[in-house]
Queue: 3 jobs
Job 1
Amino acid sequence: MFGLILMKLNILLATLLFTGSAFAQTTPATSCPLPVIPQGTNTATFPSPRVDWVARVYNTNQKAHQIADSIKLVFDGDSITDYWKGTGKAVWEERYGKLNAFDFGISGDRTQHVLWRLTQGQVDGIHPKLIALMIGTNNLGNNTVEEIADGVKTIVADYQKRCPEATILLQAIFPRAEQPTDPARAKIKAINEVISKLGDDKKVIYIDFGDKFLNPDGTMSKEIMPDFLHPSAKGYQIWADAIQPIIDRYFPTK
């Protein structure tokens, strides 16, 4: 199985190099072996790619680098962030279109995938004022609370190294599942408690507004999150309203 995956990845990268010279500048080589994760390593902190989305990563990086000088607001994360380009598009265009924001979020990503994207030059040459980050919900089934929190911490540190002038808006992982008794709720709460300590209200601003997606009894409405994970258009409006005071701090209205 590993050999088949590796062969497919090499074919994909070779195709990218053949079909577009721009990829030659961002693709490390025609042969890109999958990393081998050492036994006992916290997988949430080990930079690793998802083979199925390598092409998308390179395409996204290419687009971002073409407008690098104009990008001042970055969003990054998984499908919840990715869907700003779909379900949340109207709110995005209203709130962030004029701010030259760029969305790096990719559906299905875990902490290790964001780390790998960063190693591929995702923000090279980009100098954002603010980086809105939310990641970790897709790690729930494979990693412990401590591992996931460490993964988030590693991403924050990596972003700080690559974009030292930026402030990171670290958003708590959104609640998921319809009922407050669902085990995922407790695990997310525990993760958020750990990563909240990363906030210093200076270079890392931590914000948790998950309760805004819930009913008073703690249940989740399909009107806000139809699948009890991804926000509806109304949910994206709630999200935008929650972070607007911070957005205004870094992008004041003239």
Job 2
Amino acid sequence: MDNQGRVSIMMPVYNGEKYIQAAIQSVILQKYQNWELIVVDDGSSDRTPMLLENFTDKRIKVIHQVNQGEATARNTALKYMEGEYLAFLDADDMFFPEFLESMVNFLINRPTLDAVYCDGWYIDTNDNYLELLSKQRRGPFQNDLFEALVRASDVFGPPTCTIIRRKIISINPIEFDPRIVIGPDWDFFIKVAQVTKWGYLDLKGVKYRVHQTNITLTTSTTKRLESLALCRENTIKNIRFDDCANEVKYYAFYDLLVNILYAQPKRQEEWFNSIQFSKILKKDRAKLLRLTAAESIIKDQSNPFVKEWLQKSLTLNPTDIKTCLLFLLVILFPNITHKILLMRHNSVQSANNSPFKIDSK
């Protein structure tokens, strides 16, 4: 078939024998038949390679590689794609039959848009419907999604519900960061959103499977935090980050410094000294210095920067009562400051657990 109008679908898979046949079958059953499916077997050790041999449809291309991780597998798929549009389908998820047809027609009728996303269902291991993707999202958003994605990853949910004009990816060019184990798609879509306009189609077009072998459930806390840190750091370094609203920049730094890098004081210190940090509002810098210091005390870590951060915070905002009190506690009663902060932290944790809520501490 002609590459014009063709949808190139990427499917990275690692040990996906349980669900991959249903996933591929959902592509074969599409009403829209101008597609190619690029399956990248990332070193599977189960029956996945054998099951893939059963599919003889010439539109299905299978690439085998040694295990290198999801991001690298997705980059491999990008290299083999020839279609006009780019779509995503993980080996345990499914498209509804009308998904490709509806999404492509949406973009055909809106030539000023570069990409579109829709709704869908979370399903369990037995294909039972759990809830709509939109129940776990903000939005929907349209046109420029960069700032919404910088704030948090809950714009799309899984990438399965999106289609992008592929020339956007090849012209810029945009790839997945192979260092990121959890959330390479979030980082990827932030880079895509930097140069695209999006539409939203009110369609329940995909099924996203939730099960105990999802990588988000099986990855260690250390790897998860490192991936989140890389996502945040890449975003803060993005050329468009300076143009975001003040509250969005504050939330991005809060998430990075307080929620993610809490056990890496040297890395936190590097960000406090960064050009990007110096560009946010003075009051926000003061607050972030105080909250990062407080979190370090709560975690009962031996952090050599705590006093220095509090002093910097006071320099930026000398009238802040909370910082003054915390600094006095650290100086006068270092042995009980941890207990005091921990008690207060536990009493307000449920209200301030998210970086996307206004902090009241």
Job 3
Amino acid sequence: MADNKVLIVEDDANLLETLKYNLRKEGYDVVTASDGEKAIEVARKEKPDLIILDIMLPKISGFEVCRILRKEMPVPILMLTAKADETDKIVGLEIGADDYMTKPFSMRELLARVRAMLRRTKMAAAPPAGEQSSIKIGNLEVDTARHRASLSATVLELSPKEFDLLAFLVKNKGLVFSREQLLEKVWGYDYAGDTRTVDVHIRWLRQKIETDPAHPERLVTVRGTGYKLEG
């Protein structure tokens, strides 16, 4: 765990210190930033394994920081919001965040999320021995060894969690999974209540792999159950 570097971006000094203390106690190497400009600078320099990113920041908002960094690096991003506004959550996910938490939150839950996100990243980077690393379904190809997906030989721009979700569904083509099952299998933890995270990632994937995202033929909804990827 000590080789995992976490960047915390938070302008509330008390919360920043609390997060830093608890993450270091868990054995993580922690770097920090208290505004958007500094966050981008530190991320580019330190190349963290995960970013905890507040939305409301001085100078540059967390949304803009996420948008900029997502284009430059595949680092998992956990966004923090002080609002219960669904719009903030959805916007964060759609610009590339992998997950979000609403303040106030349980430190125990945040640490569980961090562990799960880092574990999933490592698993994606090192597929189990004997597992087929490249899978093709029609013109869609997912290469887990290279962490790359392509459609008709054109590489898709996917966030880390979009890739994880697509890779899981491709490996299990034809099988139906509920939102709760996808959260457990792809995000790596039990998620009580809000499953909007899955819906947003499914919608985002459809925009990238479907000819007509409004009428998906590949990544389909099974009414009352969940989602599946057609073979």
